[in-house]
Amino acid sequence: MKALRSGPLAGIRVLELAGLVPPSYVGLILADFGADVIKIEKGAKASIGESGLMDTLARGKRSVALDLKTQQGKAAFLRMAKQADVIIEGNRPGVVERLGVGPADIHAFNPGCIYARMTGWGQTGPYKNMAGHDLNYIGITGALSQLAPKDGEIPVPPINLLGDFAGGGMTCALGIVMALVERSRSGKGQVVDAAMVDGAGYLSAWFYGVHSHFPPLWQMLRQTLSGKPGHAPFYRCYKCKDGKFVTVGAIESKFYRILQEKLGLNPASEPPQNDTSTWEATSTKFAQIFETRTRDDWINNVFEGTDACVGPVLDMDEVKTFNQHVERPYMFQHAISKKSSRQGWQPGPAPRLSRTPGAAGETLPQAGENTAEILKEFGFTDAEIAALSPTPQSKL
User: Fold this and answer.
1) CA distance readout (Å), 187 to 30, 190, 199
2) % of the chain exceeding 90 in pLDDT
């Protein structure tokens, strides 16, 4: 039997139906915090997705290759599901039901299982069976409309953090943990319907509250916190002499004064901070000043250690050597696979727990790498394992 991992979720067994990236992120979170996450791969090349990329979110997981479209593969999965605490799937509504491995099928013999279903639109509604991506999902939450450079202009879409990973993956993982806590009292499992639309909208709760109850404040916030050209000069990014960028977030007046002083300006001679009629001119002045020195010069020799609320915009390759992350380790190096000497970098688990912290797995499993080992843990004989012998198959 595999030794228990450490972490708050140690002893929790998770079956993750391999597929798209966001559900894999859910499994990564659970694995980082101690759960035994087993990927159910679709075939011998399952870890290589449609893009040709390995699942880089498979760290700390193990992999079993099963073809759920065969009677043997389906029977093997159902047998494993009897001992599962959590199942994660990310298909369109109805797919797992047609395969005979949906929530009702599992709860018929394992009523304590938490069955997490992650989709873009959710399990219900007129959009539920439509294709979509992060941009489509956040588009109907109201959040994307706030990302236009100016009112009436085309919104600038963010990378797919908001829908896929924050509204989707992180919210789904939270739902699973809440369901596990509730199960400790009731003994019953339940379905976690994690829609990216719902999650991204939920992240916008504070903004909706201000929009509904304090319209004047909402308009001011949109101008102040948007970081858009022509808006607040004290909350945006500026380009430096070397073409790199800094962030400025000096919202409070006491911090704004420090920012002005560090830029060589006399606060008493400058326009009031919240005089919106002067914001564009002040932004232009700030931009000209920031372009007189390199980014690292500004950060290391002017702003570091101050309350001016100025920081660097780091490229992904720079993050691991930034002094904050060196003293408070944030990135870790891992092997692409056990058979490869290639090393990659990824952020570590968050948040940081004092007694039972998360720990990221060091390698990414190859598809089906642990099939025999895991099936033996679930009570399969050598003959039963040999009879399965999955082959590559199409998507579920």
Assistant:
1) 20, 10, 26
2) 73
